[in-house]
Automatic annotation (TrEMBL):
UniProt GO cellular component terms: RNA polymerase III complex
Gene3D superfamilies: Winged helix-like DNA-binding domain superfamily/Winged helix DNA-binding domain (1.10.10.10)
Similarity annotation: Belongs to the eukaryotic RPC3/POLR3C RNA polymerase subunit family.
UniProt domain DNA-directed RNA polymerase III subunit RPC3 winged-helix: residue ranges: 11-63
Compositional bias per record (Basic and acidic residues), positions renumbered to this chain: 90-101
Renumbered residue ranges of the record's region Disordered: 90-111
Function: DNA-dependent RNA polymerase catalyzes the transcription of DNA into RNA using the four ribonucleoside triphosphates as substrates. Specific core component of RNA polymerase III which synthesizes small RNAs, such as 5S rRNA and tRNAs.
UniProt name for this protein: DNA-directed RNA polymerase III subunit RPC3
Subcellular location(s) of the protein: Nucleus
Subunit structure: Component of the RNA polymerase III (Pol III) complex consisting of 17 subunits.
PANTHER family listed in its UniProt record: DNA-DIRECTED RNA POLYMERASE III SUBUNIT RPC3, RNA POLYMERASE III DNA DIRECTED -RELATED
């Protein structure tokens, strides 16, 4: 489940996106490229001639909400997975510290780090469940 909205125009040129985001086109272009690669926005080419010359082609940026929602959910799941992996590593680190009486870790209390990670995992998981519900 993802919230959809009809408030935004369907498709915008780079100039329009830059104006709406209050940033210069030279900053908006690479940001849109990264968002395109991540699946948050889509790009449609509208050639003005049959030769598909890039100079005469109009490029329209738009958001496909279902696709953007799937991309966001995938990012959130990847974050949760990384947090779980880190938590497992911290637990192993804590076992090594307590097993031989000597710390193999350069710094930081593994139990405090683990507690922080557990909280972050729960909050991330809660956000994923909320996101799926809306």
């Amino acid at each position: 489940g993802c919230v959809t909205t009809d408030r935004l125009p369907l498709k915008l040129e780079l100039k329009q996106v830059a104006e709406m985001s209050l940033m210069p086109e030279r900053e908006a272009r690479p940001l849109l490229g990264r968002m395109l690669a991540a699946g948050f926005v889509s790009l449609q080419e509208m050639p003005r001639s049959t030769d598909h010359n890039p100079r005469t082609t109009v490029y329209l940026w738009h958001v496909e909400m279902a696709r953007a929602c799937r991309a966001l959910e995938a990012e959130m799941l990847a974050t949760e997975s990384k947090l779980i992996s880190r938590l497992e590593a911290e637990h192993r680190r804590g076992e090594r510290m307590h097993g031989d009486g000597e710390s193999t870790a350069p710094s930081g209390d593994p139990s405090r780090v683990a507690s922080f990670l557990e909280t972050a995992i729960l909050q991330t998981h809660e956000s994923i469940m909320f996101f799926r519900y809306i």
